[in-house]
Design goal:
This protein is an alpha/beta fold and 254 residues long. Helices cover 31% and strands 33% of the residues.
Length: 254
Amino acid sequence: MKNRKNEITVVNCLIIDDEAPAADALTEKLSSVSSQLRILDKINDPKQALTNILLKKPDLVFLDIQMPGMSGFDIMEALSHTDVRPFVIFVTGFDKFAIQAIRASAFDYLLKPVDDRELVLAVERFLSRFKEKKQVISYHLLLAQTAGKKIRFNTTGGFIMMNPQDIVYIQADWNYSEIHLGKEKHEVVTMNLGSIEEILPQGSFARINRSVIINLAYLEKVQRGKRLCILRKDGIAYEFKIPIMRIRYLEGLV
């Protein structure tokens, strides 16, 4: 909504969090972040969230995920069947795999306890997109990725279903590929890396050289001097050579 007097865009917001102190603290922080944000209400009962969103039609919702009775994803599922599609910034203590999926779907997120700097950056990113009027987020894509949807990979004997969150990295082996899930645990599939890239969740994986795709959720560090990419899962490190151009590519993703 626009204030015609000074042409400042006013963004109507809802905060949905079953913990009242957390909602109050976020409201206070937001008041110092931007004068463009107008907090319409703070909803502590998640079962009332959907009704309030449909009634008040906010531009932006700060939404907790882990709530009793109705989770943030349940609310998103319900909204996907309506024509009310506000922007959503998750405020969550959820694990990094779900966060990676959220990021891939172009939603923003904040980890509890909310860091002031991260809050500022999240609001700035939102305001930039909101002013451009480009709401192109797919609720269904978000829900599919965060629900742990499995992907089909072809094998010599048929096919195998795998959750992409379990994959650490994928390595090419001629016309086959090895999908590594952890120490001494891998599956061989009859697909090349190009074919696999097309079916992996966008933004969650990256090809770091001609023969390796990594899961960004397990990326620990990149060493420019040695041109090494290092992943870690369950205390085990995995190292790969990475060209300098791929390092720059990774910097644009994380």
